[in-house]
Amino acid sequence: MKVKKLAHMVALIGIAGPAIAQDAPMQRVEITGSSIKRVAKEGALPVQTITFDTIQKAGVTDTESLMRLVSANGTGADNMTSGNNVFGADADRTSGGASFASLRGLGPNATLVLLNGRRLGNNGGSGKAVDLNSIPLAAIQRVEILKDGASAIYGTDAIGGVVNFILKTDYEGLEASTTLNGTEEGGGMQRRYTLLGGLGNLETDGWNVMATVSREVNDKLSSSQRDFANGYQPGRGLSPDTTGTPYANILTGAGSALGTGFKMPGDATTYLQAGLLSLQGKCDSVPGMSQYASELWTNVTPITRTKYSCSYDYGGDYVMSFPVERTTGVSRGTFKINSDHRVYVEVLGSRTEATAELTPMQISTTLAAGNAYPVNGPYYQDLSPYIASYDKTKPILYKWRANPFGNRTQGVTMDNYRALVAAEGTLAGKYDYKLGLSKSGSKAQVDLLDGYGWTSKINAALGSGIINPWVAPGASQTQQATDLIESTKYYGAFQHGRTTMTQLDGSISGEVFNLPAGAVAMAAGFDLRKETYGFAGDVDATQILLSPGNANLPEASRYVRAVYAEALVPILKDLEVQLAIRRDNYSVVGATTNPKIAFRYQPTDWLLLRGSANKGFLAPSFAQLYAGRLSQELPNGVIDQEGCAKNPGNPDFCAIPRLDYNTGGNPALRPETSKQGTLGIVIEPFKNFSASFDWWAINIKDRILNRTPQVVLTNWQYLNQYIIRDPSTGAIDHVEAGWINAAGLKTRGVDVGLRYDGNYAGYKYAAVLDGTYMDSFKFAEFEGQPYVEEVSMFNTRDVYLRWKHTASFTVSKGDWSALLLQRYASGYNDQVPNGGKSGFPAGFDPRVHHYTKYDLSATYTGFRNTTITAGIQNLFDEDPPFTAHNVDEVVGAGWDPRVADPRGRALSVTLKYKFF
């Protein structure tokens, strides 16, 4: 029985809660990572299981929070807080209101999310991956996380691994539950209400119908509600690099009041910007403003522009957690035809309504735009008492954080659905089959609710002089100015996207013949899909000032045809090998074949060895293939570095007058490909204790990245295939930029699982740890460049932490049980202020400290049909660790939402009542 004990204990390694009964009947089930049903046991692949009981006791209210408990999930900007405000070429601003999984930190595209082993439609906004918010958490029975590549089983997206949400399928009764989770410091209140009901017993009645509906309401949490969200801490190397302030700074410019520059008495330096409050030493008289910390930014923004300017802590204005309302529902009807066959119908739907808020517009006026402050305006600001050359007969150019226009607010609505008709059972008493036809889809709608307006109207309003960009502290705009501002705004539909997926899939598996060591089991199956995606603007975004932008993509479709086979071969009594191969044929990018081999070897009852090697692929997304293909021109003076070296002085190479380039989607993209593997050991050195150690490695080539033409030209040695030349002259005809196959990466590490359980004086207890040690994450921007190590370094997309773990201790006796949960994230090298060019302030700490969070909960079931769970999240009210980073790459001024929870200490109460 020790072998059975080992299999059961190790299957629970992770944060799974109560141990399963040792005398439960052993049934054949399909485990994530294989298409062959078998008796559940620890197999060749590392699969972590999280039960709904643990999810509930941990106070988890949504699937995004659930993925934070998985150590193998990336520490990245794929959540609703940071994911909607990532800047740079690889940013995805079409996913507002969505959250994604990112195993191994490879990005949402490289993690396959399944529901009951089948695919879901991708997010309707970006079209790139499954929105976790569309998964009905209340209907989940368990979650299985495969921490290995699985393209040989499931096809594309499975390079980082697979997250399989398993729903309740045969429920009888009626129960209602509610969860309230409120923070001690206010803001970020979370509520969830759930109703679950089911009729019919599948074994005795031959049918079962169940349905559940859940309603979630999460309140907004603003940076202003937390002291640690502070972007002005110059003594620690953190200060906002902006002169766009609520009390405007005045700019230089030919024909303007400040002219092309000015000098101060006794100073020969020519300065380029000035602010009245700075000249008066009163920058801090306006909330959030301060004297610009020139010493931190000298080599980025010259002191000639900043010495007499105020700055603004715009990071303190950001919303940490958006207000969200979500309704999810799932229903399932199962009908037993006979003892060997059953059919079922499953319908899932969800609607998420999120309100995304960004800081108000930052406006820089120009004479050409007609928005300069006029000489005859009632609020004309005269700096001649401070600056002798100030010409008050000229209009004023200024830079202004336009707070009176309000926060830029976007309403994001996500609708998701899936309908499935399926059959499963046994043929000839020994072959398991399943067959399903499904249709799933997602629709995203973005509306502009406030803070945006027509560019022409805003420029005219500013140029009228009625709006005052220098409102004194404590004062406000006039009613006339407020009405004028309101008249410039745009309210209404902005952009929308939609994905659909129609899938027909089937498989058959069973034992086919015997070898001396046992029976060989095989599976074969097919997967036929039609996928579509379209994205369009509802209004001309170019006419709206500082709009999010419309990445228009006319509806495109593709067909996927796949066949696969798998075998479990017993080589020796204690050695089993898994072989798998799958061929996918995409109507757009062609065909790919991916094999996999894995082994499971158990030489003794206390030792298990396992490992795998496989190839994977990631098909380019619709947006990467087709979005916004534009032909544009670079300005005068472009240098062809390669051509100019060969033809010195030739203007066709050394000073190109106009250079064409293409950007946006690229129909010629190739799939990303991977080679990866695992090697693990599972041991039970003494009774009630088991441990697993799984080493993993992933190498990826042809990574798809979005690159500018300037980057392509600068890196011509590595990207020469994207520089298209005239065959007769050798001169550059144009540059292919946008999405290209560019980079490679190599990552490796070790997953660690520990479990110890037992009984003492009538108490059952279990201590569990799920951890990931990332040994290396090396990235090359372009093939041919040296790989750069990213582990424990600040990064603008993912922070690749050396060590992450979730540990839990559960204890139960009678009607009582308790759970103590610890989440740990190791520290990393901080973002260096100004790249270190300006030196380091005395208080700068080059390391971001580790983050540790404890959650404690207790559950009581002593009242009839009632379960009460009360818990405290962030028991010791741990603040996020300080980072000398502001919001210009990832949201968070002085803290990082990818690593830490901003809510602080919170009380969670769940009440569940079963009516029958």
UniProtKB/TrEMBL annotation:
Similarity section: Belongs to the TonB-dependent receptor family.
Signal peptide span: 1-21
InterPro entries: Beta-barrel_TonB, Beta-barrel_TonB_sf, Plug_dom, Plug_dom_sf, TonB-dep_rcpt-like
Main subcellular localisation: membrane
Name of the protein: Iron complex outermembrane receptor protein
Organism for this UniProt entry: Pseudoduganella lurida
Gene3D superfamilies the record matches: TonB-dependent receptor, beta-barrel domain (2.40.170.20), TonB-dependent receptor, plug domain (2.170.130.10)
This protein's record includes keyword GTP-binding: no
Membrane-topology descriptor: Multi-pass membrane protein
Domain TonB-dependent receptor plug: 44-162
Swiss-Prot/TrEMBL keywords: Cell outer membrane, Membrane, Receptor, Signal, TonB box, Transmembrane, Transmembrane beta strand, Transport
PROSITE patterns membership: TONB_DEPENDENT_REC_3
Subcellular location: Cell outer membrane
